[in-house]
Amino acid sequence: MLFFVVLQRFQHKNNVGEVNIKEVSIEDMVLWLSSKLHSAHKLSFFELSAELTTVDELISLFLAILELCRNQKIKVYQESDFEDLVIESLVA
Fold first, then answer.
1. Is residue 42 part of a domain?
2. 41: CATH
3. 3-state secondary structure of 36
4. Mind telling me which InterPro entries this protein's record contains (predicted)?
5. Alpha-carbon Rg of the chain, whole angstroms?
6. For residue 50, what are the domain limits?
7. Residues forming beta bridges with residue 92, ordered by sequence position
8. How many domains would you assign to the chain?
9. 14, CA 20 to 30 Å: which among 57, 58, 59, 68?
């Protein structure tokens, strides 16, 4: 549900017929997210996605979150059903 809401926001941002060539690798997004978590320790998925401009960046962010979870660098949870995702650093 949350991902759908965020995705809807991107459909309103992009102009019809606009071509975007900007590519963001998952590794770049892992570094960006790690940097954000270093200063904040806890972040909102919704707020993070507001800083992105393309659907490709959004997908890279989501995959970066999964990668950091797999490596046990972060934990992701929701306060309640259908709420924002909270991303919390597990690295001191």
1. yes
2. 1.10.10.580
3. helix
4. ScpA, ScpA-like_C
5. 13
6. 26-89
7. none
8. 1
9. 68
